[in-house]
Amino acid sequence: xxxxxxxxxxxxxxxxxxxxxxxxxxxxxxxxxxxxxxxxxxxxxxxxxxxxxxxxxxxxxxxxxxxxxxxxxxxxxxxxxxxxxxxxxxxxxxxxxxxxxxxxxxxxxxxxxxxxxxxxxxxxxxxxxxxxxxxxxxxxxxxxxxxxxxxxxxxxxxxxxxxxxxxxxxxxxxxxxxxxxxxxxxxxxxxxxxxx
Length: 196
Fold this sequence. Notes:
8 strands, Nucleoside Triphosphate Pyrophosphohydrolase, single chain, 6 helices, alpha+beta
């Protein structure tokens, strides 16, 4: 991930007071639906349109003096997603990775959380009533996990958007490691699969 180095969680937590910590979560759910009655959706994966016009994941900065990473992340999810976020809790078991950038001195902790489709849909419906909707968060979007026959529509077109920080790489790594795409999808997308 360009400009960022991967850290083990213990190493990230040992960084000095000059470092800020941010936590973000990819929320997903199995989705048996079909697009146009023939294209399997497989999973619903949420991202958000941020205040700066870039795509990212729900979450934000946490204060380790007052909270654990997960407490801070769940507070951020409540602010950005609303009441439906109370139906689940992101835990340490959902942790995926940490990456540090030197300018600014920020460590980004990434989590993935599998929900039921009903929970995920409730998050989508309730998000417009969340505290930060229209401010930090301009809306939620589902990531299209398919490629249309033209080879462009769906995920290839989605990946052409502008992402904040390393969110694009986090998305691709999670899709690969969680098995959310059909086998061979990375080759068809003409992008290299992230390391497992």
